[in-house]
From TrEMBL:
Superkingdom, taxonomy of origin: Eukaryota
Pfam families cross-referenced by the UniProt entry: KLRAQ (PF10205), PPP1R21_C (PF21636), PPP1R21_helical (PF10212)
GO molecular function, one term: RNA binding
Chain coiled-coil ranges: 119-192, 540-592, 682-716
Basic and acidic residues bias spans: 604-618
Stretches the record annotates as Disordered: 67-88, 597-618
The protein, known as: Protein phosphatase 1 regulatory subunit 21
Protein's organism: Geococcyx californianus
Compositional bias per record (Polar residues), positions renumbered to this chain: 77-88
Location in the cell: Early endosome
Length: 760
């Protein structure tokens, strides 16, 4: 097809090229004729311009001649005849020129119009032809590109297909080889599996007394596979349901409490008048609502706590559903108990003089809604009690009906939500009408607002629970197949409980298997290191003794540290007191000297003013006092210098003794550590010595036995020469070993003596 299209396209391209060539030639011819016409037009315009100039000159001459003729009319009559003849000639000539010019103008205009028309036609044809040529060229180029792309693509596909065919051939060869190998392996596996099957059947027939999966009663005791994802999902759903139930319980408590307040203030306010006995009883029952509503939350909490990651949660094992069902039954009994009083209270309110027709209609709607609410709770209790039956009475609900029960619960929850929406709407209309009552108080309006808010919360909670249950209905129904292997149900709650106990035991056994084994020393290594461990300085006894000694030393050092800390604190307190006393004495001396020094000139002035006494003795006394003050100041300076010297000397002595104490303590610690090390070495050498003595005793016993054997065998020397030689060799080796042992013992004794001397 591509080749045929290529031939057609080639023909079309050739035809278009021929047409374009012919059009180009026609265009050249038209351009030539256009140039000729343009030249003729240029010549005509030039000739026309010349004639126009000639006409203008002739007109100028005519005007000049007419002007001259008027002036010389009288004088030149004969010349006028000549001029008239000339005028007639000129006029004829001018008329001819005008006619010729007009004809030329007409011809030029016609030629110009024809040229313009022809040029426009040619231009339009040229544009059309150029557009066609461009379009054809674009088509040709696009087809050429497409053809080249197709060729390249086909070539690439051909190369790829060739490569693929080669690879497929190789893979086919490999697959043939693999199939042969697999067939061989299959034969081997079939033979092996057949032998293993025979062995397994023999073992089962001999060892297994019975198959528990054949019996439903026994199969129910088998632990199912643990589905952790299912348990986590179910716990998450139970947590969400618990949150919704808590929200619903809070809204129910608020609704019943605010209803009790409303009964006490409308239509008769209990603060101003006595309400009817019916409303009193109704209020008394409503006051007990918490004891019936709170257990719903507690029951749901117990259900949530019973669902853990390690358990198997199905209806047969959900024992806490029974408790929740009982709490729901008690709340249903509460609703049944208050329903007649609530209906009578609404009827009594309708009979009141304050009740209008619209308010009476709203009360009757609420009358019907309350009956529907109780009916919905009865349905919910029925279905929840059915769900609780498998954990108590397995034959009370068939497994095939589980899906239907869940669906009916979802439908009842949606009905509960719809009824609450109707109650909320009717009560909001009732509250609006009650505000228009003349005796409506602010307390009534506030109570109605609180009841409306509790109804809105109750409606929202019911809607959340209904949507939650409908969205997860598939999960609830699909999870019912979670049970023992080979069987889709538990026979009884007792078997489910036994299965959970077996599951706990299995979990404990698996955890014990997962515990890592304690690291142990290999037996050969332990035997090789036994002698080293017995004589090691790091043995347990030595280390325990060292630890005890170090603990005793630490306790003594702590006591000494506390003692010296107390001594240091006392010395510090005494030093502070001495410094304070010295400072006080020095400051007292300084102040007295300064006061005396400042009081001397004042006393001299007073004496000069008061009495007239000779001046010489006064001078002598003032000089004496000044000298005494100077001596006091010098004494104080010397005392300060001495005090500073004493402090610096005390600091030097203190630093010297502290350095000396630190040095002595370091030497003491070094000596203690050396003594401990020497003591440990002595104990180790003593152990080695005792081990060497034991080995010496064993060797001496062996030597005695060998000597006895030699003496016994000497009776027949010819027969047992070989054994004698061997025993002699053993004896020589044992004697050498004993000599080496004695040498080592002597060396160890010397080392012990030297260590004892060093420790002393």
């Amino acid at each position: 097809q591509l080749r045929a299209q290529n031939q057609v396209l080639k023909k079309g391209v050739v035809d278009e090229q021929a047409n374009s060539a012919s059009l180009k030639e026609q265009l050249k011819m038209k351009d030539q004729s256009l140039r000729k016409l343009q030249q003729e037009m240029d010549s005509l315009t030039f000739r026309n311009q010349q004639l126009a100039k000639r006409v203008e000159l002739l007109q100028d001459e005519l005007t000049l001649s007419e002007a001259k003729g008027k002036k010389n009319k009288k004088s030149a009559e004969p010349s006028s005849q000549l001029s008239q003849e000339q005028k007639s000639v000129f006029n004829e000539d001018l008329q001819k020129k005008i006619e010729e010019n007009e004809r030329l103008h007409i011809l030029f205009f016609e030629a110009d119009e024809q040229h313009k028309r022809l040029e426009a036609e040619l231009r339009t044809k040229l544009e059309v032809l150029e557009a066609d040529a461009a379009q054809h060229q674009a088509v040709v180029d696009s087809l050429t590109r497409k053809y080249m792309d197709t060729i390249e693509k086909l070539q690439n596909d051909k190369a790829k297909l060739e490569i693929k065919s080669q690879t497929l051939e190789r893979e086919a060869k490999d697959c043939r080889l693999r199939t042969e190998e697999c067939q061989q392996q299959l034969k081997n596996l079939q033979a092996a599996l057949g032998s293993r099957l025979e062995e397994s059947l023999c073992i089962i027939n001999e060892k297994v007394p019975f198959n528990d999966t054949r019996s439903n009663r026994y199969n129910a005791l088998n632990v199912p596979l643990h589905n952790r994802r299912y348990q986590l999902k179910l716990r998450d759903l139970a947590g969400q349901a618990l949150a919704f139930v808590q929200e619903l319980v809070t809204a129910l408590l608020n609704f019943h409490t605010y209803t009790e307040q409303k009964v006490q203030i409308f239509p008769i306010d209990s603060a101003t008048d006595t309400i009817s006995p019916l409303n009193q009883k109704f209020s008394q029952y409503l006051h007990e609502n918490a004891s019936y509503v709170r257990p719903l939350e507690e029951g749901m909490l117990h259900v949530f706590e019973s669902i853990t990651e390690d358990t198997v949660t199905v209806l047969e094992t959900a024992v806490k559903l029974k408790t929740f069902s009982e709490h729901l039954a008690s709340y249903l009994g509460f609703l049944r108990k208050i329903l007649p009083y609530q209906l009578k209270s609404l009827e009594e309110e309708c009979e009141s003089s304050l009740c209008t027709a619209a308010l009476r209609a709203r009360n009757m709607e609420l009358h019907r809604d309350m009956k529907r609410l109780t009916v919905v709770f009865e349905k919910l209790h029925t279905y929840v009690s059915l769900l609780a039956l498998p954990s108590t009475k397995p034959k009370g609900l068939l497994r095939t009906n589980y899906n239907l029960v869940f669906t009916n619960i979802a439908t009842s929850l949606h009905g509960f939500h719809d009824i609450l929406k109707d109650i909320s709407k009717h009560y909001s209309q009732k509250a609006t009408l009650e505000q228009d009552v003349p005796t409506a108080t602010q307390k009534l309006i506030t109570t109605n607002d609180c009841i409306l808010s509790s109804l809105v919360a109750l409606t929202n909670g019911a809607g959340k629970i209904a949507s939650f249950f409908s969205n997860n209905l598939d999960h609830f129904t699909a999870s019912l197949s979670y049970g023992p292997k080979g069987e889709a149900e538990f026979i009884s709650p007792l078997s489910a409980e036994c299965m959970l106990q077996y599951k706990k035991k299995a979990v404990g056994y698996m955890k014990s298997l997962k515990k890592p084994c304690a690291d142990s020393v290999p037996y050969e290594e332990a035997l090789a290191n036994r002698r080293v461990l017995l004589s090691s300085t790091e043995s347990r006894e030595g280390l325990t003794q060292q630890v005890q000694q170090s603990l005793e030393k630490i306790a003594k050092l702590e006591q000494e540290k506390e003692h010296w800390m107390l001594e240091a604190q006392l010395a510090k307190i005494k030093l502070e007191k001495e410094n304070q006393r010295l400072k006080n004495s020095l400051s007292g001396h300084l102040t007295e000297a300064i006061q005396e020094h400042s009081a001397l000139p004042n006393e001299a002035e007073q004496k000069e003013n008061a009495e007239r006494i000779p001046r010489e003795p006064i001078k002598s006394t003032s000089l004496a006092s000044i000298q005494s003050n100077n001596t006091n100041i010098s004494l104080l300076k010397s005392l300060l210098v001495q005090a500073l010297d004493v402090e610096s000397r005390e600091d030097l002595i203190k630093t010297h003794y502290m350095a000396r104490i630190a040095e002595l303590t370091s030497h003491l610690q070094l000596a203690d550590s050396k003594s401990v090390h020497f003591h440990a070495e002595c104990r180790a050498l003593a152990k080695r010595l005792s081990l060497a003595e034991k080995s010496k005793e064993s060797l001496t016993e062996e030597l005695k036995v060998a000597g006895q054997n030699i003496s016994r065998l000497q009776a027949s020397p010819d027969e047992l020469m070989t054994t004698k030689r061997s025993y002699e060799d053993q004896l020589s080796m044992m004697s050498d070993h004993l000599c080496s042992m004695n040498e080592t013992l002597t060396k160890q004794r010397e080392e012990i003596d030297t260590l004892k001397m060093a420790s002393k």
